[in-house]
Amino acid sequence: MVMLLASTTVHAHLMVAQRGTLNLVGDGAYMVMSLPTTAFKNIDDDGDGRLSYVEGNAHRREIETQIRAGVQLAGPQGLAPLQGVIFTLSPPDDAPTAPAQQLVVLGRFALTPPNTAWQFKLDLFGSRADEQTQHVTVTRGEESQLMTFTPARRTLEVLPSGWTVFVDQLTLGAEHILTGADHVLFLLVVLAAGWRVRHMLVALTCFTAGHAVTLIACNVLGWTAPAALVEPAIAATIVGMAGFDRWCVHRAQTPPAAVRWVGVFGCALIHGLGLAQAFSDLGLSGSRKVLSLAGFNLGIELGQLAVAMAAVAAFQAMRHLSGNASIKLDNAWISYGAMALGMVWFFERLLVSA
Fold first, then answer.
1. Quick one: average pLDDT of 129-153?
2. Per DSSP, what are the bridge partners of residue 217?
3. pTM value?
4. Residue 29 burial by Cβ neighbours in a 10 Å radius (0-12, 13-18, 19+)
5. How do residues 228-246 score in pLDDT, each as one tens digit?
6. Which residues contact 55 (CB under 8 A, 6 or more apart)?
7. Is the bond leading into 151 cis (omega within 30 degrees of zero)?
8. 39 pLDDT more than 90
9. Among positive and negative, which fits the CA dihedral 262, 263, 265, 270?
10. Distance between alpha carbon 216 and the CA centroid of its chain, in Å?
11. Which 3 state secondary structure label does DSSP give 226?
12. Under 8 Å CB-to-CB from 106, ≥6 apart: which residues?
């Protein structure tokens, strides 16, 4: 084992935080990975959530042991040996001797036999919210793949079949909708308009079509948009749609359904930019990329349907218990609440990006 913690020149540019690569060549798999220092136990002596060169050198044996236990490549015949482990701190560019939040790890897995099915396991996640996801790009010749690890997804198949890629991305798409508070809130605003089932289904279809157009354009045609603009814009769509609904109610006007459908579609284009960021840097090629896009889109659709079914069931239950007057009041509270929360998110995201 070679330790580079004493170096102050080899650090920050080795790997972006929460990213990694695994390159399969012949009988070896060469790994480079940036891991959060808070993922390692009993090495932060001063408790500041960072790792200094002194702390790193003092705990180099514990660090290597935890790397070998937390980063593994397994095949039908057991674990592939991890050889030549090297690690170094990755401090900020403007303070090369400062304590670091990331540890860059390098090593080689010995593949015996080389052409078997492998599973990659990652069990080193940090304590901060932004350290709960790790992306690892896998390559073998012309083949490539992006693995996305979370505490709930610690073991993934290396260069899997097309069906596995499809199912994996379907799950990610559904999870992104169900855990994305802004997308769920926008859907609730759309559903709270009190439309009939047919109009509601068309609105959901418009939302699906809108974000699918942007998602495909970003990942196939290479369109990009900075997160500093996209995230506040997503919050603005919530405020805008909820405000439009309340404006129509106060003026006792019912705009043509097509007008609202166009509005939902336009907002969905913006939401699609956010989804594209979650799906960016796929590292997939050929049929894998097509299947991954298809699975991700279908997962988003299934997630939306789950939200819609739950919301409709709740509205129907309230109507049965309290009547239509209660539904109108609840819809109003949803709209006003969405506007308030959307404004908070809008200014919060502007401040974060400033």
1. 87
2. none
3. 0.65
4. buried
5. 888 999 999 999 999 988 8
6. 43, 44, 45, 46, 99
7. no
8. yes
9. positive
10. 17
11. coil
12. 30, 31, 32, 33, 84, 85, 86, 87
- Residue that has been written with the tokens 């989804």 in this structure: 275
Token pair of 328, please?
């109108």
Closest CA relative to residue 49, chosen from 127, 159, 103: 127
Q: Is 283 left (phi over 0), alpha (psi -120 to 50) or beta?
A: left
Q: How long is the chain?
A: 354
First-last CA distance in the chain: 43
- The residues near 267 (Cβ < 8 Å, ≥ 6 apart) are 186, 207, 210, 237, 240, 241
| Residue 191 near residue 311, CB atoms below 8 Å | yes
Q: Identify the pLDDT of residue 233.
A: 93
Instruction: Give the dihedral of Cα atoms 83, 88, 93, 97; nearest 10 deg.
Output: -170
Give the integer Cα–Cα distance in Å for 144 and 135.
Answer: 13
**Residue 182 tokens, joined:** 């802004």
Closest CA to 15 of 89, 84, 78: 89
Residue type, 32: V
